[in-house]
Amino acid sequence: MDGISASSIIWFLADLGGWTRIVVEKPFGKDLESSEQLSSEIGALFEEPQIYRIDHYLGKELVQNLLVLRFANRFFLPLWNRDNIDNVQIVFREDFGTEGRGGYFDEYGIIRDIIQNHLMQVLCLVAMEKPVSLKPEHIRDEKVKVLQSVVPIKDDEVVIGQYDGYRDDPTVPPLSNSPTFATMILRIHNERWEGVPFILKAGKALNSRKAEIRVQFKEVPGDIFKCQKQGRNEFVIRLQPSEAIYMKLTVKKPGLDMSTVTSELDLSYGQRYQGVKIPEAYERLILDTIRGDQQHFVRRDELKAAWEIFTPLLHKIDRGEMKPIPYKPGSRGPEEADELAAKAGYVQTHGYIWIPPTL
């Protein structure tokens, strides 16, 4: 649709009364330049309060719970900072490949498809300061501040991969350099988060399907129980599947001995809220559009700040200056990704697996 016909439709709708709003689905461009061009073209036809850039992750129940968890619970307030938190992981994993979307996916890759938008929106909610109020502009102001505080990504803090067999898809170029997996370290230069690595990980054709936020706390000084080898305290928000919030902690193992074991405090939604229908993300966001509530939508300056972070890295990959590491389907991804997370300070817990409670 050209500008003349689009503007004619807009003026026609305005003459009918009521309101006019446009919902824009990702991708919002491929880099900073194309995103700004798209924003300018849409901005020539609509005012910013009319534009709803939709990211369905912002409609997920557990993502929307982040503000409540952080700012409505007293015990998180003194803990949520660099003095107590060692690292934060935000993870998206799929156990299937592109399968029918190879042509589309190859044009964008995992960083544009998942990390630059979905995972960065989650990062903003984890890292932002308390907004003045729950008004959409106050919340989005704080998210923009987080994005503007992210320092440039270092090449040696990025691992990209491509699963074996990806190029067998006839819609994928035989010499494709597009990553199907990426792990990277983002660092936020402000008083709250200085020195805390944010580990963003996304991949296809892996050994499990899940999306989660994992906040790992520092070790307890003076370990009188000699239990540090069991793992650190973690606060985990399981976004999908089996939505849950749980705290991994060390407790006394039942019995006569003063021995310890890792356990959890668990809020599993399927068990706690039986019979409660959790709305689908798009269902919730479309309703917000009708209501005129932009809280869970991406503002133009927010989008620009996110692209400024990732565009230099994406251009290096596009030019072939960074090559994806092959990995086997059904694995954890390239081993180099786990090595990068460990180097950043993440300590994996061995011998403990969270099992969703059964009804």
Q: How big is the Rg?
A: 22 Å
Helix content: 25-40%
User: SS-based structural class?
Assistant: alpha/beta
Run of helices and strands: HEHEHHEHHEEEEEEEHHHEH
Structural shape: globular
Strand content: 15-25%
Count of individual beta strands: 11
Mean pLDDT: 89
Read across the widest sheet, the strand sequence of neighbours is 10-9-8-7-3-6-5-4-11
The largest sheet is: 9 strands, mixed
Q: Helix count? A: 10
pLDDT < 50 runs, ≥5 residues: none
Distance separating the two termini = 52 Å
Structure, described:
The chain is α/β, with parallel strands linked by helices and 359 residues long. The protein has ten helices and eleven strands. It has helices at residues 3-15, 32-43, 61-64, 66-71, 102-127, 136-149, 269-272, 281-291, 300-318, 335-344, and strands at residues 22-25, 51-54, 85-93, 158-163, 181-187, 197-203, 210-217, 234-240, 244-252, 260-268, 325-327. The longest helix is centred in the first third of the chain and has 26 residues, at 102-127.
